[in-house]
Give the backbone structure.
Amino acid sequence: MRTYVLAALVVATVCLPCLAQPGNGAAKTADGVTTSSSYSPVQGFDEKRDAAADIRAAISEAQRTHKRVLLYVGGNWCPYCEQMHDLFQRDSELRQLRDAHFITVPVAYGYGNDKGQALSSYSKVLGIPHFFVLESDGSLLQSQHLVELRDGGNYSAQKMREFLNRWSRPEAAVQTAKKASD
């Protein structure tokens, strides 16, 4: 009997973090109705993924959660993408700001893959890494070459914060504040 209890505790400990990932579980609509989702966020650049399908799924999730979509174009081969990753890992407030307002989709981009096809309806990728900000209906709001968010050879947390705030939906900020007070 103790073996079964121990096994159940191990499974619960391992699985609980999965339930807490952004994008999984339930969300409240503007009228307070709770909706659930099977959306699973894309983790990292993966050249084998279907970028067009990932973008469509993110748009659906953005509509459900009243967020915008942040297409993050880059690759595992890109040292500047690694710097961007490090910035969000070090600055939890910046990461929370991004996750509260955007469904982020890493899109692997590089030689010999067809990811450019999935991005063909947007403006030209000016360099890697690159952000496309989409409205929840999938329309392009901003194309951002990220070199402009650098300062002194690194990405600037302040410039990134200003960018994310500029492109966050105003009503999403109100909903986020409302959730925090509940």
